[in-house]
Amino acid sequence: MEAALWYVLTGTRGGANRARVLRAIDERPRNANQLAEDLDLDYKTVRHHLDVLEENNVVTDSGDDYGKVYLPSEAARAHWDTVEEVLEKVI
Amino acid sequence: MLVRIVQVFAVLNVLLLAALLYVWGRNWWQLRSKHTLGLVLFSAFLLGENALAAYLFILDPTLNVWIHHDQMVPRPAQIALASFRVLQFLGLVFLTWVTWD
């Protein structure tokens, strides 16, 4: 899990924005639309970051069909010190 | 033909590694973590290796003649030299694809 977190957040081109997405939903679960607005990112960009984060089991969603909200996964919570370490430097 | 593959793929590997070094270098500049430093060093060293290969097999007057000589570089050796570059290229293509994400 830690290796996945490091790579997804610090090893890739979109890592910094993924870290911002993760911090935002940690403060308060949000849907993709709200994230795009709050972080001033393109909706499609946010969608892509959420998909990558979900694929790597860093975030999870509420399961609703429309406007589902995203929140950090159990696995991300278990390694939150690593996440904090990254967030501190990214933002 | 095989010699051409060695030359072309050495250059292509240099380009992919430059792209990786760019992304990882930028992240390292921002994060200064040992994880990103590891990626930077990996791409820097492998970039050096491929740049050296490109120089030796394309520009260096002695080795450029040597590699084109069938008697001096028998076919199995040429196949090996070409395979190393192509296999490395395939690995780097995938790594670049996931990193550019």
Report a brief summary of the structure.
Chain A has 91 residues and is mainly α.
Could you explain how this protein is built, in words?
The complex is a heterodimer of chains A (91) and B (101). The longest helix of chain A is centred in the first third of the chain and has 13 residues, at 15-27. Chain A has helices at residues 2-11, 15-27, 32-39, 43-55, 74-78, 80-90; strands at residues 30-31, 59-61, 69-72. Chain A has 91 residues and is mainly alpha-helical. In chain A, a hairpin with a 7-residue loop joins strand 2 (59-61) and strand 3 (69-72). A 3-stranded antiparallel β-sheet of chain A has the order 1-3-2. In chain A, helix 1 crosses helix 2 (15-27) and helix 3 (32-39) crosses helix 4 (43-55). Chain A contains 6 helices and 3 strands, in the order ααβααββαα. With 101 residues, chain B is mostly helical. Chain B has 4 helices and no strands. Chain B has helices spanning 2-31, 34-59, 61-67, 75-99. In chain B, helix 1 (2-31) packs antiparallel against helix 2 (34-59). Chain B is elongated, with a radius of gyration of 16 Å. The mean pLDDT of chain B is 95. At the A-B interface, helix 1 and helix 6 of A face helix 1 and helix 2 of B.
Keywords:
heterodimer; A: 91 residues; mainly alpha; three-stranded antiparallel sheet; 6 helices; 10% strand; globular; B: 101 residues; 0% strand
In terms of per-residue confidence, which ranges of chain B show pLDDT below 50 for 5 or more consecutive residues? none
Rg result of chain A: 12 Å
Counting helices, strands and paired strands, the structural category of chain B is: mainly alpha
Class per helix and strand makeup of chain A: mainly alpha
Largest sheet of chain B: none
| Unreliable runs of chain A | none
- What integer is the average pLDDT of chain A? 92
Strand content of chain A: 5-15%
Alpha plus pi helix count of chain A: 6
The helix content of chain B, as a percent range, equals over 70%
Q: Describe the oligomeric state of these chains in a short phrase.
A: heterodimer
